[in-house]
Design goal:
The complex is a heterotrimer of chains A (about 250), B (about 500) and C (about 1050).
Chain A (H helix, E strand, L loop, with lengths): L16 H8 L6 H9 L2 E2 L4 H6 L4 E2 L2 E6 L6 H18 L5 E5 L4 E2 L1 H6 L7 E4 L4 H14 L2 E7 L5 H13 L3 E6 L12 E8 L2 E9 L8 E4 L17 H12 L1
Parallel strand pairs in A: 3-8, 3-9, 4-6, 4-7, 7-8
Antiparallel strand pairs in A: 1-2, 9-10, 10-11
Helix pairs in contact in A: 6-7
Chain B lengths: L8 E5 L3 H16 L4 H8 L3 E5 L4 E5 L1 H5 L8 H7 L4 E4 L2 H16 L5 E4 L3 E5 L4 H4 L2 H15 L4 E5 L2 H10 L9 H10 L9 H8 L6 H5 L3 H5 L4 H10 L16 E11 L6 H17 L2 E12 L5 E11 L2 H13 L7 E8 L3 E2 L5 H24 L4 E6 L5 H4 E5 L19 E8 L4 E12 L7 E10 L4 E6 L5 E6 L2
Parallel strand pairs in B: 2-4
Antiparallel strand pairs in B: 1-6, 1-7, 2-3, 5-6, 8-11, 9-10, 9-11, 9-12, 13-14, 15-19, 16-17, 17-18, 18-19
Chain C lengths: L15 E2 L15 H10 L4 E4 L8 H11 L4 E10 L2 E6 L3 H17 L9 H5 L5 E5 L5 H15 L3 E6 L6 H15 L2 E5 L10 H12 L3 H4 L14 H7 L2 H12 L23 H16 L6 H17 L2 H16 L4 E4 L6 H5 L29 E5 L3 H12 L4 E9 L2 H11 L4 H10 L9 H7 L7 H13 L3 E13 L10 E3 L6 E6 H6 L5 E6 H16 L6 H6 L4 H8 L12 H10 L4 H10 L2 H5 L3 H8 L10 H7 L9 H12 L3 H17 L3 H13 L4 H14 L6 H20 L1 H9 L9 H10 L4 E2 L11 E5 L2 E5 L10 H11 L7 H6 L4 H9 L10 H9 L6 H4 L16 H12 L7 H7 L20 E12 L7 E8 L2 E8 H6 L1 H6 L2 E10 L5 E10 L2 H12 L2
Parallel strand pairs in C: 1-2, 2-3, 5-6, 6-7, 9-14, 10-13, 15-17, 20-22
Antiparallel strand pairs in C: 3-4, 4-5, 8-9, 10-11, 11-14, 12-13, 16-17, 18-19, 18-21, 19-20, 21-22
Helix pairs in contact in C: 1-2, 5-6, 7-16, 16-17, 16-19, 21-33, 21-34, 23-33, 25-33, 28-29, 29-30, 31-32, 33-34, 34-35, 38-39
The chains are: A alpha/beta (about 250), B alpha+beta (about 500), C alpha/beta (about 1050).
Organism (chain B): Agaribacter marinus
Pfam families (chain B): IMS (PF00817)
Protein name (chain B): Nucleotidyltransferase
């Protein structure tokens, strides 16, 4: 595979048929198109720092590769972002599906309901072969009826990724691929690739690849639980004396 | 429609439709299943009764029950005291209505004007069929033959008004088929008014001045009666006495689509079925189009040489009619079908269809994405099988396994509103909890759940939120004997 | 501070649960108040508050439990309220606070319909003494702070914030919010479990109750219930883990500040019943002396004088004067209104009560009864029930309300508890058992079957006893039985006080309009030594008064109960009683009583007293009847295990028959103290509900065997105690009832027509239908005239025709006929003679009334027959006003047929429930539709053990609890009744005839028992009901 990177040189696409072909396959990136892309709608992640790192946010459709171990708040992050985008759909009565393909368990309805997601719009493709899973993800992504497809798979081939990316673009939806494989899969033909790790209340995000802009140092998001952990307290000022006074009053 | 008072009518009364239905089921089984024959026969011959809870009465009983002294009109408690092992079935009017409609369908082949007298009577206008069958006797032979085949008990009678025929049928113990007016009048005179359609209030009035039978009624000048009962009852009385014509509404058979095609050559490859299917589906589309209808389901029977018929049902998540829509769904499903023998014919059935709603242009945009969604689901289900395409159901239960379940996907489920749900809930639950193997530090808890004692799936658990050393947030719980389990991830 | 908690920084060794609901918060909590206090004591709590929702109904139970068992735990009285979504608990630190709390509950309850309450802002603003515990709502912090500020304005330093912890999800967030609220308002925080159960094991029952309340199944409760069993009383060490130590010690401190105890409540009688210049003692004595002159015109004997002095002394030392005076006042009112009454109960049968005219039991007749009724050592509150005519009791009640005012008068409550059937049905529904199955269980479980428990009967009915569902079903039913369901009004127990009643106890609305009920029942009142006056209704008094009135009007014979009793025991009257000719006689008219009368042969007043008490489940279950008979007839030697026992049992031949005797036996033979005996008596009254009686078993039996009695004898006494159960019959009541039994027998003997009319006009009451009573009258050769529009009035009346008194039946017998219509007819008749039906139509009576008259054949004198009459009435033309006068009389329509005798019979039964002219058996007999049989009147002539066949209408079918497995069937023909006994085996073998027959033929053996009682022991039962249909067809064919 040839990797071509043009940083500064301006060129005319139709002048070079090979380049043309590469560009059509989106294997080349040009700095001018970076500007054009910026003008295209980006989806804010709700975190200023992350938005900055992503050059204004997520692309408006496509495939995102997320490398993380399960339980780092990965789903939460994406659901929160995609949910905002779905508000518009819901207002127009246009219910789109959330699709879970081969998740590592069962999506928790109570969690989704707390996020104000109508679980009737949830689709789970479960217990299938890899081939079926990918076919389903592709069908969903391109159908135009889904807001996002969450796909759990260890490894995908270039071709598979390519198919999914095109499907998502075609259906104007997201295909978010979670993997806990530590193996680096470089240069996948997709919109965005990130890695996530968690330490206590902080999530560290490393952007491995994005269509526009550069990979950066990892950024940190603070995402604590809502909960309080202890209700015991030791107050110095004790008001028992007041109650005893009261007792004497009431006896009078 | 209204008829003169000269027409001859048949009334067919089915005194124990539901009970006969149950008996029929047994007959169906005993013929095929020899292994359990004696047991089933014993069951079939056990005392049985149909019970109507609204009136707390038994309304149909079989002979075996009769022998035990059980009678129609008895309460449940009394009947069960008389015979404790009485098999009781709750009365379902809809069952009888369906059965009645089926009988009507079968009769429709041989006679034209049929009226459904729900739930247990059929009215036939015999008059216009007499010529066709060469008189009443010939006509009745055909009807009787048809009815006997159904295996339902029935009693039929003829008379010159619908009400009179009904009264005689309900009153007699045997068929009463004659054209002779004087014979009819003679038997009618003896009939008790209690079975007639006269309103209960007026029936009681008449009974309490000593009028119990049709004869009693006939003695009195009609004008005298008219001042003493209400109009509905008076109409019934006039029809009964042949003073006024009958008004009835005739039965229309339902329409459904069936087409069978015999192939000119045998086909072994499903791919090759496509053009033939397209042809049939076009016919279906035309059938539906004429009726301005769409359908959700079709059935195709593939007749295989030297092998049992292969019956496949194809579902669409939204009503469709064009052959192109159907061919896509069918092709996807056929991909996973292997033929064990060559196909020599097929038949397509479409039992139910629904009328198309006039589509509203404003709503079209919105509907289009909905249609995209539904056709996506049809596609997924055809390819993967229905069981692998699932949705999520939420039930009010403290047990997470119960609250949260994967179910076959259906559209149009009930809306679950999102009020009062807990925050700090894991995004993914394990299908079944696993023993906790790693070291976890506790962040929050406990939340104690002690419930489910009523359905033998009780749980007592203290749930905690914990964090593993590599940063995973976990939902874990401890049982009363200090066992720790992992139940979910805060993804 | 004596009980100051041992407080250190991180562990609080004591605790006081200040928010705790018992099952008197109906369906909200799952433990009895007694269980709550016992558990709190067991866990080492220093105090527990019972704070039922807007109620004090359960707190007395808790109080008694602590008192009876001397538990070292403090009980705090309080109540919980929900007000605009906020939960508030008021606690009563002192008597003033208690009155305040009662007043608020009363106000809130009186505003709403029965079973509900509505607290008003005003109620809270007026609180000056109660402590207020506040549980902030789950709403926002801001709204709660506003609320807190408002509460603080009124409660000031008496407001506290409660933090509850049930280990539910997201609970910590709420607690942190509450802490913030407390800080910003500087409120002290109090820890609480907000207990709804005494033990976590009650969780299933609690959830079952919640499902009952919501009307769904337990599975359907979903998350609208508890997630776990933490809403209970929990060990102190656990509380220390989950609560801040300071909050625990705050609860203890607050508990210590509550000083009020229910023992402080003192009851003050209304002052106005005593004249101002006299003390109650002086006034009572004056009234008694006045009464002596009236009751004993010839002067009192020395003995009676002594007794009066002794009674007065006792009344004075126990401070019961007001009680006697209050009842005196009530009966004086009844007397002035000519309302018949009769006092009964332990204190009623005293000479003082005789002199105060509370009772008519003449002591010169029954001196054997004296001295037994007020007993100082037993320390029971005096018990006087006064029965009034049932139709006129309302007048007495209205008098009491009027005299003392509604604020000072209310009815005592009756706690309606879950019984077996209701528990089974409700629990079953919550477990999703189908209603059909439940009905089947309920109908087929014989609770009287002593041998087979209902649990095992259930498995016989097809419930697999080992299945999980069956186990929880049975266990929940067992737990629920005895749980209070709701408060109902006591039949007639009034509490009258000097000041407003709501300062003493909360008052709420009863189901009946214009009635108010206090939240305590009879036992609670007794526990607190408060007195109530029982104003009860008795049908027989109405019948007797109506008879007396007729005697005065028709025979000019003044008559009264004392007049009859003064005449002395009349052998002729007793002869009639011994023949069991007692249909309609008070207390001795049931089949069981009638079969016993010829054997016991009562011949004097005290025999009647015994007769009434002996034919009861208690003595029969304890197998006391036969020994009594044998001993009385001298067939068995009477011996007493000891002299003490002899004193108790001598008057009943050594056989314990009365409730008092059993209690006294427990004291003299088993060594029960007065207090224990009193608890035993109460347990007897409620044991079916609560099963508390079994607690006493060991004590009674060991107590008796230790004192040298045979254990078999002791077992028998205990059997009898359980048998007494709810039917326990005290001698004092029996003595009063015997008077009425005698008076009604006397009337029936000397003035039978008068007696029957009086009885018929007082129905419904007693065992018999009008038909059966009229059949009885006919057998006594009294002529009966059917209802007739020309002669009848609303009531039945005596007519003097042909030198005889005959009974003219009245319109009240006609179903669907109104009294007002009757008045229209009698009024019209007083001026005009009715000659045709049109006249009756023109009276403008409602259509239904006219129809009813025709059905009852009351128009027979104006028309050929009832068909013709009704045909004429059915016509709607002449009722138009214009035509009314023009159409005078119509000719009878010829095309209508004559009703047959059978038609007439059916119509008679349908319209009046009886037929004066026809009897079905006579009709069938005349139509030759019956096989050979013996008429009831002929049975007397047949010898003992002869084979016999009888046929009759099944008029009565009883399977009394006193005779296991036996059914008494009464067959009626036109000559009388025959008594059939069906053994269980015969009934089972011939179920069809036994259950279905309306007309029954019985072939069996005639048996003559003691005293010539005739029974037919059934062999073959044959259902002849179908003969009626044949009769119907036959009568049609021959018209």
């Amino acid at each position: 595979m040839i990797i071509l990177c043009f940083y500064t040189v301006q060129f005319e696409l139709h002048m070079n048929p090979i380049l043309h072909e590469l560009a059509r396959k989106q294997w080349v990136w040009s700095a001018t198109s970076a500007k054009q892309q910026k003008q295209k709608k980006c989806i804010s992640t709700g975190f200023t720092e992350l938005d900055k790192a992503l050059n204004a946010g997520f692309p408006n459709a496509g495939m995102i590769h997320v490398q993380t171990i399960t339980g780092c708040g990965e789903l939460d992050l994406f659901i929160n972002i995609l949910k905002q985008q779905n508000v518009q759909n819901e207002q127009s009565g246009n219910n789109k599906f959330w699709v879970f393909v081969s998740p590592p368990g069962v999506p928790n309805a109570e969690y989704l309901l707390a996020q104000h997601i109508d679980i009737n719009n949830l689709l789970v493709i479960h217990k299938t072969t890899t081939e079926e899973a990918l076919w389903s993800a592709e069908q969903c992504a391109k159908s135009g009826a889904c807001i996002g497809v969450f796909l759990w798979q260890k490894r995908l081939s270039q071709l598979q990724v390519r198919k999914l990316e095109l499907s998502a673009q075609h259906g104007q939806s997201y295909c978010i691929w979670f993997t806990d494989s530590k193996v680096k899969q470089a240069n996948l033909p997709l919109s965005l690739s990130i890695s996530m790790t968690r330490h206590k209340n902080d999530i560290a995000i490393q952007i491995n690849k994005q269509r526009v802009g550069w990979t950066q140092q990892s950024i940190t998001l603070h995402r604590p639980f809502n909960c309080h952990t202890s209700i015991k307290r030791n107050k110095q000022a004790h008001r028992a004396a007041k109650i005893i006074n009261l007792t004497q009053q009431s006896l009078n | 429609m209204q008829f003169d008072t000269q027409s001859l009518w048949l009334y067919i009364y089915f005194p124990s439709l539901q009970l006969d239905l149950i008996q029929k089921q047994y007959t169906g089984i005993t013929e095929h299943d020899f292994a359990h024959t004696s047991e089933l026969r014993a069951k079939k011959n056990a005392p049985q009764a149909i019970y109507q809870s609204s009136s707390n009465q038994l309304i149909q009983i079989n002979n075996a029950a009769k022998v035990k002294g059980i009678k129609c009109g008895m309460g449940l408690a009394k009947a069960s005291l008389l015979y404790g092992d009485l098999q009781i079935f709750e009365y379902k009017r809809s069952l009888e209505e369906n059965a009645l409609e089926q009988i009507a369908q079968q009769l429709y082949i041989v006679t034209s004007d049929i009226v459904l007298a729900h739930p247990n009577g059929l009215i036939l206008r015999a008059q216009n069929m007499l010529n066709l069958y060469g008189g009443l006797a010939g006509y009745w032979r055909v009807i009787e033959y048809c009815l006997i085949k159904t295996n339902y008990r029935f009693i039929a009678s003829a008379a010159y008004s619908v009400h009179a025929a009904k009264l005689i049928a309900l009153h007699s113990k045997q068929h009463f088929i004659t054209k002779d007016r004087s014979k009819i009048q003679h038997i009618l005179d003896k009939c008790s008014l209690a079975y007639s359609d006269i309103e209960p209030k007026d029936l009681q009035k008449l009974a309490r001045v000593g009028m119990h039978t049709v004869k009693d009624l006939r003695r009195i000048p009609s004008a005298e009666v008219a001042g003493r009962v209400n109009r509905y009852s008076m109409n019934t009385i006039n029809e009964l006495l042949g003073l006024a014509p009958s008004k009835v509404k005739f039965y229309q058979p339902p329409s459904s689509f069936h087409e069978t095609i015999e192939l000119l050559y045998e086909i072994e490859n499903t791919e090759k079925l496509r053009p033939i299917l397209t042809h049939t589906l076009r016919n279906l589309a035309q059938f539906l189009c004429i009726r301005n209808a769409r359908t959700l389901q079709i059935k195709i029977d593939f007749l295989q040489r030297d092998a049992p018929c292969l019956s496949l049902t194809f579902n669409s998540a939204l009503p469709i009619y064009t052959h192109l829509d159907w061919i896509e769904i069918i092709s996807l499903k056929l991909e996973s079908v292997t033929l064990i023998a060559p196909i020599y014919g097929l038949s397509l059935h479409c039992e139910k269809h629904e009328t198309t709603q006039a589509s509203n242009d404003d709503l079209f945009a919105q509907r289009s994405s909905q249609i995209a969604g539904l056709s996506l689901i049809s596609r997924l289900m055809s390819k993967l099988g229905e069981s692998k395409v699932q949705g999520l159901s939420y039930a009010q239960d403290f047990r997470p396994e119960r609250a949260n379940q994967l179910v076959p996907f259906t559209s149009n489920t009930k809306k679950v509103t999102g009020v009062g749900f807990n925050h700090d809930q894991p995004g993914i639950l394990l299908t079944s909890p696993e023993v906790l193997t790693q070291q976890v530090s506790i962040i929050k808890g406990p939340e104690r759940i002690n419930t489910g004692w009523w359905d033998a799936q009780a749980i007592i658990r203290d749930y905690y939120i914990g964090q593993s050393q590599n940063g995973q947030r976990l939902w874990i719980y401890k049982t009363p004997n200090d066992q720790w389990y992992l139940h979910g991830f805060f993804t | 501070m004596a009980s100051s908690p041992n407080h250190n920084q991180d562990f609080c060794h004591s605790f006081a649960e200040l928010v705790c609901q018992s099952n008197f918060s109906f369906l909200d909590a799952a433990s009895h108040p007694e269980e709550m206090v016992r558990q709190a004591y067991f866990l080492g709590y220093q105090a527990i508050a019972i704070t039922d929702e807007c109620s004090m109904a359960g707190v007395v139970r808790a109080y008694s439990e602590i008192k009876n068992n001397h538990l070292p735990i403090k009980l705090i009285v309080g109540s919980k309220f929900i007000f605009q979504g906020q939960t508030l608990v008021l606690l009563c630190p002192n008597r003033k606070a208690y009155s305040e709390c009662c007043r608020i509950i009363t106000n809130a309850r009186r505003r709403a319909s029965k079973g509900k309450y509505e607290l008003a802002e005003w109620d809270l603003k007026t609180i000056k003494h109660c402590f207020c515990l506040w549980l902030p709502s789950p709403k926002g912090i801001k709204e709660n702070i506003e609320w807190g500020k408002w509460l603080k304005t009124y409660f000031k330093e008496r407001l506290f914030l409660v933090v509850k912890r049930w280990l539910t999800s997201n609970e910590e967030d709420k607690i942190v919010t509450d802490q913030t609220i407390a800080d910003s308002l500087s409120l002290d925080i109090i820890a609480s479990s907000c207990a709804l159960m005494h033990d976590p094991g009650r969780l299933p029952l609690l959830q079952c109750l919640q499902a009952i309340k919501r009307g769904c199944t337990i599975a359907e409760l979903g998350k609208n219930t508890l997630a776990n069993a933490e809403a209970c009383l929990r060990p102190i060490h656990k509380l220390n883990v989950i609560f801040d130590t300071e909050w625990l010690s705050n609860a203890c401190l607050l508990a210590a500040a509550c000083e009020f105890s229910l023992s402080e409540l003192a009851y003050e009688y209304p002052a106005e019943i005593v004249p101002q210049d006299l003390t109650p003692t002086e006034y009572l004595r004056a009234l008694v002396e006045k009464g002596i002159k009236y009751r004993f015109p010839e002067g009192v004997s020395h003995r009676i004088h002594e007794i009066i002095e002794k009674e007065l002394h006792l009344i004075q030392t126990q401070n019961y004067e007001h009680f006697f005076l209050t009842i005196y006042d009530v009966v004086q009112f009844a007397k002035s209104q000519n309302i018949l009454y009769q006092g009964r109960g332990s204190a009623a049968n005293s000479v003082v009560c005789y002199c105060l005219e509370i009772t008519a039991v003449d002591p010169s007749q029954i001196d054997v009864l004296f001295e037994r009724f007020i007993s100082k050592e037993r320390d029971e509150p005096p018990d006087i029930d006064v029965d009034f005519e049932h139709e006129r009791r309302e007048e007495v009640i209205q008098y009491i309300y009027q005299k003392y005012g509604r604020q000072r008068t209310a009815l005592a409550a009756t706690v309606v508890s879950y019984r077996f059937k209701s528990a089974l049905r409700e629990v079953g529904k919550t477990l999703g058992v189908s209603i059909l199955d439940l009905d089947f269980f309920i109908k087929n479980i014989n609770r009287r079957d002593g041998a087979l428990s209902w649990q095992s009967q259930l498995s016989d009915l097809g419930l697999d006893p080992n299945s999980h569902q069956a186990k929880i079903f049975i266990s929940l039913v067992e737990q629920l039985i005895g749980f209070p369901r709701h408060l109902s009004q006591h039949v007639g127990g009034f509490v009258i006080s000097d000041g407003p009643l709501y300062e003493l106890v909360p008052v709420e609305n009863a189901a009946m309009p214009e009635r108010t009920v206090i939240q305590w029942d009879k036992d609670d009142l007794e526990s607190l030594k408060l007195l109530k006056v029982d104003v009860l209704a008795l049908g027989m008094l109405t019948a007797i008064r109506k008879s007396f009135d007729m005697l005065r009007e028709q025979y000019e014979q003044p008559c009264s109960i004392p007049f009859i009793t003064k005449l002395g025991d009349d052998p002729q009257v007793y002869a009639r009683i011994q023949r069991a000719d007692t249909i309609g006689i008070f207390q001795i008219e049931s089949r069981a009583q009638m079969s016993m009368l010829p054997r016991l042969k009562p011949a004097c007043y005290y025999d009647l007293v015994v007769q009434i008490a002996i034919v009861r489940p208690g003595p029969i279950q304890g197998d006391m009847v036969h020994p009594y008979l044998r001993r009385r007839d001298g067939k068995e030697k009477i011996d007493y295990p000891s002299e003490k026992v002899k004193r108790v049992l001598q008057r009943t031949n050594g056989v314990p028959i009365f409730q008092e005797q059993v209690i006294q036996l427990a004291m003299v033979a088993a060594g029960f103290s007065g207090g224990e005996a009193d608890q035993l008596r109460r347990a007897m009254a409620t044991w079916k509900k609560t099963g508390e009686l079994t607690k006493f078993r060991a004590k009674l039996i060991t107590g008796m065997t230790e004192r040298g009695y045979e254990s078999a004898y002791a077992e028998r006494i205990f059997e009898q105690i359980t048998g007494f159960g709810e039917y326990g019959f005290p001698e004092s009541h029996s003595a009063s009832f015997a008077v009425l039994a005698y008076v009604s027998s006397w009337l029936k003997h000397y003035y039978p027509a008068v007696f029957y009319v009086g009885l018929l006009n007082s129905l419904p009451m007693g065992f018999y239908s009008p038909s059966q009573i009229i059949q009885d009258a006919k057998r006594h050769n009294i002529q009966i005239l059917p209802v007739c529009v020309l002669a009848s009035e609303y009531d039945h009346k005596l007519s003097f025709i042909g030198g005889n008194y005959v009974i003219q039946l009245g319109f009240r017998l006609v179903k669907g006929f109104k009294q007002s219509s009757s008045e229209v007819i009698t009024c019209y008749r007083s001026t005009t003679v009715i000659t045709n039906i049109q006249q009756v139509r023109n009276l403008g009576l409602p259509d239904t009334c006219l129809q009813a008259l025709a059905s009852a054949d009351a128009l027979s004198k104006l028309s050929d027959n009832r068909y013709a009459a009704r045909w004429q009435l059915l016509d709607n033309v002449p009722s138009l006003p214009l035509l009314r006068d023009t159409l005078k009389e119509q000719p009878a329509p010829t095309y209508l047929r004559q009703p047959s005798l059978f038609d007439e019979l059916i119509e008679d039964y349908a319209s009046t429930g009886l037929s004066v002219k026809q009897h079905p058996i006579a009709l069938l007999l005349n139509s030759r539709l019956l096989p050979r049989f013996t008429l009831a009147a002929q049975l007397q002539q047949l010898p003992h053990k002869s084979l016999v066949s009888v046929i009759g209408v099944v008029s009565c079918k009883q399977s009394p609890g006193t005779a296991a497995g036996v059914t008494f069937i009464t067959l009626e023909d036109h000559t009388g009744n025959s008594n059939v006994i069906v053994w269980q085996a015969s009934a089972r073998a011939q179920k069809q005839a036994y259950l279905n027959a309306k007309i029954l033929q019985v072939r069996g053996i005639l048996e003559r028992g003691d005293g010539d009682v005739i029974h037919i022991i059934a062999g073959k039962l044959i259902d002849l009901s179908y003969r009626l249909d044949e009769l119907n067809t036959k009568s049609r064919e021959f018209r």
